[in-house]
Amino acid sequence: MERMVLPGEEVWKREVQASGTYVRGGITYASVPGMMRDEKFIPLEMAYRPKVGDNVVGVVVDERHAGYMVDLNLPYNGVIPTRKVRIHLELGGMVYGKITFVDEVGNVDIGEVDKLPAGKLLSVPASKVPRIIGKKSSMLNQIREMSGCPVFVGNNGYVWIGPRGNMHLVAKTLRLIIERAHTSGLTDQVAKYLDENR
Amino acid sequence: METPELFKDGKRLDGRALDELRPIRIIAGVLKEAEGSAFVEWGGNKVICGIYGPRECIPKHGASPYTALLKCRYTMSPFASLEEHGRTGPNRRSTEISKVIREAFGGVVMSGEFPKTQIDIYVDVLQAEGGTRIAAIAAATVALANAGIPMKDMISGVAVGKAGGQLVVDLGKAEDNYGESDMPIAFTHRDKEIVFLQMDGKLTPEELGNCIDSAMEASEKVYALQSEALRKSYEAEGGQELDI
Amino acid sequence: MGDEAKELVLKEVDRELLTNLLAQGKRMDERGLNDYRQVKVTKGVLSTAEGSALAQIGDSKVLCGVKYGEMTPFPDRPTEGVFMVMAEFLPLASPTFEPGPPSPYSIELARVVDRGIRSAEVIDTASMFIEEGKVLAIFIDLYVMDHGGNLTDTAALAAAAALSDTKVPKVVDGKIVRGDYVGPLKMPDKPVTSTFIKVGDKILLDPLRSEEHAADCQLTVGTIDGRVVCMQKSGAGSMKKSEVMECVDVALAKGKELRSYI
């Protein structure tokens, strides 16, 4: 059973902490449009809020005493603290890392940083990232295999596509996933699409 | 000034019943660059709304450590009215409307989740026929949802009032100009809390209470259309056409 | 940042204090929930204006000057006079008021007062026709001089009082003769406003500045005898229909009281 839920509509008759929802008077309501599928709430749109443990793709935009400033598609740049990186980063360089710290006003520290070679950077709605990755990365691996491209997806909505394989196919597939993110059987739909368009 | 007849053979000038809304058409997600957007055609009103943010607060020193600043800019295009060419950009009227629209959403947008940022609601009236602020609110609600800005509830409203001695719902231009009273009002969907209310003209407390009741009823119909627009936006492949 | 950050912090402090007080049924001062502070109206305080008044509600002070002018009528109403209300939040009235273009707050205040006067139909614009292409204009200027909260009611009171003090200038050969009058401006009604704030589930009339800090939202109800002539909800937050209707009842009763000061 599937149904669409709009902001303010009831999601569960009990108190549940889930993203895209809020609780009032013991009842959980949606705060963004979402889809109810098998009693699970899948947000269809959601402004991204960084969390510790999120994987992110970013672009180095400044070098300061405190560290490298990284554009993460967020209102404010993230920081790779100098004391935490041993690698040297270039301005304009792309990185993949993990959020290690978020303060109460949304300032973000990034650790476990890997340098990414020059590639294509795409911005996708952060709410669609879970679908792009899929269960246990099933969707993402499928895209990687069929396109022959190295692809990294950040929870922040930045996607890095490496300069190998069919980059165009990756971009087109991502667009398909974004448009059909709310439909079921998406992995099969994408498999078919990749197969037909490779 | 001569007041034209507002009723003909017991019906309103455009043939509507007293409690009947003008035709309303809402499309969600019509703009690509904006985080969220909506187009609303409401009778002769055409309104477009785009949402940006949460994004960096400008100026920076205006940022709040507690919450995102919600900003609203409502403007009227210079070609929006049948009369002469208007001036582009904000004026006293639009400044006031921007303020009260922003405040209507202030209570439902969960701005506390995005401290130090701002969320912009841009509404532009492309064509006006009376009731633009209510059409703007309808568009902004859909656009905010379309942008994934968390909200406690959706907002829907309508202008009600008294024209030609009768209580009417969704005042048209002539009813707005020559009627006795105009009351744009908007409610949250679930709790029917009043988040937007203005009124001018003369009303007794009884008339006022009746106006609020019929507005509440009519805004349910507006909500149904807003919700339908959001649902539809997920069915359309390749995004929604901006069909003005 | 300075003042704005301070305002934000003060707001939190005031909110906590007022919520605690309200739980004990008290306000920041000793008043009941539906009481006005001391109201004082002084008419005819300026000799240069055709009408004037200083209104004070508690510490709030608003001066209103009414001036006549000549103007080209609006094309859609060629035989009708024109009036307009403007508000000036003087920087001396509050540390938070800065010189510069009018803020949304001052524009809103002026427009709410304007709507009250317009809806009450107290100014007979048809009598302000001079000759083709020329009508009389009435400029109603509100000078906010001290911000102790509830500027709207203070300003509306000042405007109604100043209008009731106004003398209509003599017009000779299509021109106003300054200092010469044909008589007082006829004013069938005196529109005033009553402003309420909502804090939690409590509703308070005539908020202090510190109470405004703590408000969820605000409702202004303009009245003449037995009729509502304008309403404006402002501030984030919401009200129920029952709360609005309660405000309307109180406003109709309190309007009588306010008019007695004019």
Polypeptide structure, described:
The complex is a heterotrimer of chains A (198), B (244) and C (262). Chain A has 198 residues and is an alpha+beta fold. Chain A has 3 domains: 42 residues, OB fold (Dihydrolipoamide Acetyltransferase, E2P) (Beta Barrel); 62 residues, OB fold (Dihydrolipoamide Acetyltransferase, E2P) (Beta Barrel); 78 residues, Ribosomal Protein S8, Chain: A, domain 1. In chain A, the strands form 4 sheets. A 5-stranded antiparallel beta sheet of chain A has the order 9-8-7-10-11, with no helix packed on it. The longest helix of chain B is centred in the C-terminal third of the chain and has 29 residues. By secondary structure, chain B is an alpha+beta fold. In chain B, 57% of the residues are buried. Chain B has one domain: GHMP Kinase, N-terminal domain (Ribosomal Protein S5, domain 2, 2-Layer Sandwich). In chain B, the strands form 3 sheets. In chain B, strands 3-4-5-7-6 form a 5-stranded mixed beta sheet. In chain B, strands 9-8-10-11 form a 4-stranded antiparallel beta sheet. In chain B, strand 1 and strand 2 form a beta hairpin. By secondary structure, chain C is an alpha+beta fold. Chain C has one domain: GHMP Kinase, N-terminal domain (Ribosomal Protein S5, domain 2), CATH 3.30.230. Chain C contains 5 helices and 12 strands. In chain C, the strands form 3 sheets. In chain C, strands 1, 2, 3, 4, 5 and 6 form a 6-stranded mixed beta sheet that branches. Chain C has a 4-stranded antiparallel beta sheet with strand order 10-9-11-12, with helices on both faces. The N and C termini of chain C lie far apart (42 Å). The chains are: A alpha+beta (198), B alpha+beta (244), C alpha+beta (262). At the B-C interface, helix 1, strand 10, strand 11 and helix 4 of B face helix 2, strand 11, strand 12 and helix 5 of C. Strand 11 of chain B pairs antiparallel with strand 12 of chain C, so a sheet runs across the interface.
